[in-house]
Design goal:
The complex is a heterodimer. Chain A is α/β, with parallel strands linked by helices. Chain A has two domains: 163 residues, P-loop containing nucleotide triphosphate hydrolases (Rossmann fold, 3-Layer(aba) Sandwich); 67 residues, no CATH class. Chain A is built from ten helices and ten strands. Chain A has a six-stranded mixed β-sheet, sandwiched between helices. In chain A, helix 3 packs across helix 4, helix 4 crosses helix 5 and helix 6 packs parallel to helix 7. The chains are: A alpha/beta, B mainly alpha.
Chain lengths: 269, 256
Amino acid sequence: MTESDAVIEARDVHYSIGGRKIFDGLDITARRGRITAFMGPSGTGKTTLLRLITGQSTPESGSVKAWGQEVARMSSRELFALRRRMGMLFQNGALLTDEDVYENVAFPLRAHTKLPESLVRQLVLTKLHAVGLRGAARLMPSELSGGMARRVALARAIVMDPELLIYDEPFVGLDPISMGVICRLIKQLNDALGITSIVVSHDVHELSTIADDSFLLSGGKVVAKGTPAELHQSDLAEVKQFMGGLADGPVPFHYPAPDYAKDLLEGQP
Amino acid sequence: MSANADSLAVSWIRRVGGMSLFLAQICARIVPSFSRPGLIVRQIYNAGARSLVIVMLSGLFVGMVLGLLGFDTLQRFGSEDSLGVLAALGMLKVLGPVLTALLFAGRAGTSLTSEIGLMKSTDQLTAMQMMAVDPLRHVIAPRFLGGIIAMPLLAATFSVIGLFGAQLIGVQQMGVDVGAFWSQTQNAVDLHDVNEGIVKSLVFGVACSLIAVYEGYHSEPTPEGVGLATTRTVVTSSVMVLLLNYLLTAAFLTKT
């Protein structure tokens, strides 16, 4: 891997929210043209990591670089320029509820370009066709299923032809068919458009089929990295528990509590 | 007790400071937001046209009550012909701007706060920032401007309908002479009175719209948070309107 390969690079990142340590020396890299997956149990700071990458939060120490530039040191103008190179898919789609599907996809074009309406229409319909929802152009977001809303959000994320696509929990709450569709779209878009993708999720099975590189986060650090196959073969207890979906392990099943027997007997006559 | 009062005072001062800064941020984006006038027109429709029925109905009933009570009081002094003056000045200077602002806070203000709060809780505002679009310019500034433009128009409608209501009762039911009603009104009401109404409704429009968008934008992104923010909008707007009304009335009286 060469230095220029790295699109996103975080080194020794420390970050805490309300006194709770989220990252304690995190190191990650997302390379050009590849699908990089960040996995980990709930509450390990996967979404926080995306906030650091996109400049919505700044780390207490350490560095987060996008295309070689320090994100935390950017002015708001530079940050907006950076974000125009990125597309982001939110967990719930985050579609504008007072606009229809067509206007949602056209939104970034209207905000950033002065393209004639005929060209806007062509671009919007092309992107909607790519996610299979050209026929739903005039529906309102409230008329869409969860999977459809996420596909519209995906069309909106790619309408400005970004170099990096970021997916925040793209599989949450989807039925198997929608999950398969989103999975295939992530792979297709990455390969066909030659972009870089970052996927944050805890759906091990889906990620294994599409990710080129995987990072497993736990306790504020990367506990394992490699291809999904390498992660599956790891002997580390944290990795085994997460990849195998085991109820108990380094991430305990029980929330810390006093002794069970003592607790039950307390208050007995 | 004193500590409680202190913390309450500090939180109020902090809120007023936050609102002033927010107002400055919005003002910096007002000119750029005119690049998409369609957004502002839509907000004038949402805040203004959609509040029209409730404002007209309220104006009519308030005017009718003013007609009844005004006639009852004035006839004791034999000056019931001045009913038009009483109704016109009452409507223009106080009732029109104040009651419209209170209705505006309840109807349009709450809808603004809850809409912006829901946009925040469903990540729509963050999504805009991620698309390198400034939500203050695209969401907040047009809604703020829409409210400011709609409020004086609604107050004017309220006053006109109210005066019509007072005339309906005074002239049609109580038998005040129609010529005296209107000629006395025309003689007594001058531009200064109309200006007072316009200035008041503009100031109330700024206050109510600012409070509504501020509370929505700073609400907790949860259902409870949006509910609380909506309540705060009504309470704060109502108190502010009544306080500002006193200050403006005093200011206009010293000017004359």
